[in-house]
UniProtKB/TrEMBL annotation:
InterPro entries assigned to the protein according to its UniProt record, in alphabetical order: QdtA_cupin_dom, RmlC-like_jellyroll, RmlC_Cupin_sf
SUPFAM superfamilies per UniProt: RmlC-like cupins
Domain Sugar 3,4-ketoisomerase QdtA cupin: 5-132
Pfam families from the UniProt entry: FdtA
Classification via CDD domains: cupin_QdtA-like
The protein's name in its UniProt record: Sugar 3,4-ketoisomerase QdtA cupin domain-containing protein
Length: 140
């Protein structure tokens, strides 16, 4: 996988003077069935979260409150996407290294995952990740 497979996805938005509503449906708004959800919150200023990739898991990340940056790399290129609205998020396919950083005060990240938690699916060592990616690119 490379960074071109990462997508910012706009979610449905129902605007109303009483308040707005957005929603997410698996296999409709995002390209996978949702198997797990989790939230990241109370991240102290200057700290970051994550720093890993997955062998098979796909993710969709949205900022429900506040803002934060998602730093992405495929081992060759790097890009940063800022999330700060609840009506769009970022789709991250398998084998993309990601790190969440630059959290604002009281920010809340919602992560939707394609598989249940499985520690063996994580690649937590960046050098190992680059080696796997390099081998994959050499076979293409």
């Amino acid at each position: 996988m490379n960074l071109e497979s990462v997508k910012v996805i706009n979610l449905p938005r129902i605007e109303d003077r009483r308040g707005n509503l957005s929603f997410i449906e698996g296999n409709r708004h995002i390209p996978f069935e949702i198997a797990r959800t989790y939230c990241i919150y109370d991240v102290p200023g200057g700290q970051f979260r994550s720093g890993h990739a997955y062998y098979t898991q796909q993710e969709f990340i949205v900022a429900l409150s506040g803002s934060f940056d998602v730093v992405l790399t495929d081992g060759v290129q790097e890009k940063t996407i800022s999330l700060n609205r609840s009506y769009y998020g970022i789709y991250i396919p398998k084998m993309i290294w990601r790190q969440l950083t630059n959290f604002s005060t009281n920010s809340l990240a919602l992560v939707l995952a394609s598989i249940p938690f499985d520690e063996s699916d994580y690649i937590r060592d960046f050098e190992k990740y680059k080696k796997i990616q390099n081998e994959a690119y050499n076979y293409i």
